[in-house]
Amino acid sequence: MADPAMIPFNPVIPFHGDVKSFAMLGPILGPMEYDGWREESQSWKNSAYLGAALGISPIYMVKGPDAERFFSEHFVNDFGSLEVGGFRHGIMCDEQGRIMMDGVVMRTAPDEFYTCWLFPYIDYALSMGSYDAVGENLYGRRFLFQVAGPRSLEVLERAAKTDLHDIKFGRHRLTTIGGAEVRVFRLGMAGSLAYEVHGDVADGQQVFNTIWEAGRGLGLKKLGQVAYMLNHTEDGFPQAYYHFPYPWYEDPGFAAYLDARPGVGWMNYKPRLLGSMGDDIRDRYVTPFDTGWENRIKWDHEFVGKKALQEMAKAPKRTVVTLEWDADDIADVYASQFRGDEEPYDPISDRPNDIRYDPGTLDQETGQIRTFTYHADKVLRDGREIGFSSGRAVSQTYHRMISLGFIERESAKLGTGVVVLWGSPGSRQKEIRATVARFPYLQVERNDQVDVEKIPRLC
């Protein structure tokens, strides 16, 4: 392998020489696979994984006497009762009730909040108000590693050389790993027991190596981006940039903010739209009701989008389900590539999911770089469109092809038969039968239910 110094790596994703394939994760070169997505995707059920894919995370800090008021006025969540050491799945909406951004908000001090995946909209919102608070963009200055799976606590205790059993679900605190101060946070996308490790990027390589060495004897696997995205569908976590886009350019003020700052909106800038949903990106936007996140909304305060969401709450139209695809119909799509005497369907078999990264198409007018694609397909019932499917994924655990469906509630009953319309408009299209299946699809003990007192202390 070439000298790492000759390759455009970034320290937020530590370099390891055993990577099978790389790709650009936005502006950063990152690992797609280590041992192959099939083996890696078993790690969060059988042992544990160490992943650095979220090194690309936009991290933003808000500090000041008015920090809590800012969050209360711009998020659907309650922050008045949030203690230091706790978190919220923060959701920001526009006036129409559509999700503008969602991500993690940790309270690290009475007047300090540490956020992930809420920049740049959070910076725009803060700049448009009058608050005694300041925001700081920490992108590229902090690392974020994920350690997830039934043995993840054992791995971290070996790495930290201290007892971490006291960290309850959704809580976080400081400790040291490899001689560096880190924040360990019990949260993750694995569906099973999972943690995040946050710290200064200068310490990232040492912390990553320490965790890796501590976990090798416990079956720890390194996780690439391909397997990481599979768990969002299998584990029931709708994910922006994969399952749905944000309506950023529907807000003229925010659009102007983005165009004046080329590059800050790389993750959601004019994405390529694939699948039978067609070219109107507005058909792919979602609300907290569509994603099953209505329980995050607290109605006891004023916030952007409240009026629209109150109207939706009277009769929510859609919700999220798992769709299990028919194997014979999938096989027909695959076989069409080789029959020779017919127009083939759009390929379905050459990747285990539909996430794709544009290598970087520059918009000459704005200077923005387009980096993501969104694949979404119409979902039909009795010939009538009832929503859309996205996040197609191959479950190696259950040997099924699945996706998340954002569909009308009347059709969301377990066992309901629907159709996923496969193929972009203008191409040959296939009606793939699908069934509304359990949600979440992965059947393991969830992170918030795991009794860690049953896990050995290995510090």
How are the elements arranged and paired?
Elements: E1 21-25, E2 28-33, H1 37-40, H2 43-46, E3 48-51, E4 59-63, H3 67-74, E5 87-93, E6 99-109, E7 112-116, H4 121-128, E8 134-137, E9 142-148, H5 152-160, E10 172-177, E11 180-185, E12 194-200, H6 204-215, E13 220-223, H7 225-234, H8 252-259, E14 272-274, H9 306-314, E15 318-325, H10 327-335, E16 357-362, E17 369-381, E18 384-395, E19 400-408, E20 417-422, E21 430-437
Parallel strand pairs: 3-13, 14-17
Antiparallel strand pairs: 1-2, 3-9, 4-7, 4-8, 5-6, 6-7, 9-12, 10-11, 11-12, 15-19, 15-21, 16-17, 17-18, 17-20, 18-19, 20-21
Task: Characterise the protein shown here.
It is a single chain. This protein is of the alpha+beta class and 459 residues long. The protein has three domains: 4-57 and 140-223, Probable tRNA modification gtpase trme, domain 1 (Gyrase A, domain 2, 2-Layer Sandwich), CATH 3.30.1360; 59-137, Alpha-Beta Plaits, CATH 3.30.70.1400; 273-437, Aminomethyltransferase beta-barrel domains (Elongation Factor Tu (Ef-tu), domain 3, Beta Barrel). The chain is 18% helix and 31% strand. The strands form four sheets. A six-stranded mixed sheet has the order 10-11-12-9-3-13. Strands 15-19-18-17-20-21 form a six-stranded antiparallel β-barrel. A hairpin with a 5-residue loop joins strand 5 and strand 6. The longest helix is centred in the middle third of the chain and has 12 residues, at 204-215. The radius of gyration is 22 Å and the shape is globular. It starts with 20 loop residues before the first strand and ends in a 22-residue tail after the last strand.
